[in-house]
Amino acid sequence: MKFYNISDPSEKAGLKKAVLTSLPKTPGLYMPESLPVMSSGFINNLGNIDQKEMAFELTKAMLGDDLPDNAIKEIIDSSVTFPVPLVQLGEKLFVLELFHGPTLAFKDVGARFMAALFEYLLRGENRETTILAATSGDTGSAVANAFYGRQGIKVLILYPSGRVSQIQEKMLTTVGGNVTAIEVDGNFDDCQRMVKEAFSDADLNSRMNLTSANSINFARLFPQTFYYFGAAGQLRRGEGQLSVSVPCGNYGNLTAGVIASRMGLEIRHFIASSNENNAVTDYLSTGYYEPKPTIPTITNAMDVGDPGNFPRLLRLFSDRHDEMTAQLKGYWYNDAQTLASIDELRSLYGYEADPHGAVAYLGIKEYLKKHDATGIFLETAHPLKFQAETGINPSEKGSMPENLKELFLLPKKAIKMAPLFSELKSLLH
Ligand SMILES: *Cc1c(COP(=O)(O)O)cnc(C)c1O
Prior knowledge:
By secondary structure, this protein is an alpha/beta fold. The protein has 21 helices and 14 strands. The strands form 3 sheets. It has a 6-stranded mixed β-sheet with strand order 4-5-13-10-11-12, sandwiched between helices. A 5-stranded parallel β-sheet has the order 9-6-7-8-14. A 3-stranded antiparallel β-sheet has the order 2-1-3. A hairpin with a 2-residue loop joins strand 4 and strand 5. It is globular. The relative contact order is 0.14.
């Protein structure tokens, strides 16, 4: 597969470069030059194959020119490791649970595939590769967990001291091995700035192989197509047209859904469900895109004022507003509406949702008032991960996942650091 930069199509890259560097040189994003279309035989058989087989066929179609079958199999075996069940709530209402991975959020899907692919692509390199990542919480825990034990790769995660949740901090600081957590005495922007300075430091880069595990890396986006196909496979036949509501932040999840539909999966509408960071839903209703400063909300994994994947999403619709609005609907909600919908899901369906999934529920509910379709909303985090917001008590819920219980017994290991690049540089020496 060849990739091109959507801001400068003359800039091209092969898989290895596109994935290991994350971003093209000029500001822009990598996109595959073409998207494979799956056979109707494959689509009609989705209900009869398991998720590893499904992931194998999709990866072979997308990256089969770059990766031999045994490499694809190895990558899938070590990354597609947890179920993504579709749960029925109402006659035409389903929730797809993406949170059964080791760090209890859907970021595990992308991070695990990326880690396995990095390990494969870096095999045979004579220098160790160091991944530097700044995190505000969810991404860092998924990346730390996914890269743990990967050969030839060291991982340094910078997180803002006192600004991640207790569960997130445990997930970041208890991994150990080839993963080092750095607790920065500053905010997320400080962490990001330190990482950026490291990437532009010539001396450092001449001495080490530095790479990022950026959230707009294509290797994180692509595996998120698997669960859209998986959801269709779990639906009974004859359930009519399918529409999917996605809780959006940086718009990777939704972009993956649209890629799945370009690869032959029939989805009538996608619903971009957003919090008050509504630059994209505003674009859908007005045709004007205006990035906005980020507003903090209780769905903090969706607090993105200028979503990084939006240009990719536009490209998938030929950069045309009318084409986009034909398949994409968008709605946004404030925190009070989100909290009320958690209660509503509990009382109507006995379903315990996290705030991000609750926003997606609001979106599908609003959509189904006007459209006759089978609706699926994506639940992107385990409700316990955001218990402060949902007000649930883990012992009440009675189902604290085993890995979470163990997590709380492990000691925190982190290197404390002032928000200065010079300190990061001397650590890297
Ligand atoms: C990252 C995240 C989102 C937003 O996903 P995008 O792909 O960035 O749009 C939603 N919910 C949770 C729990 C997340 O961690």
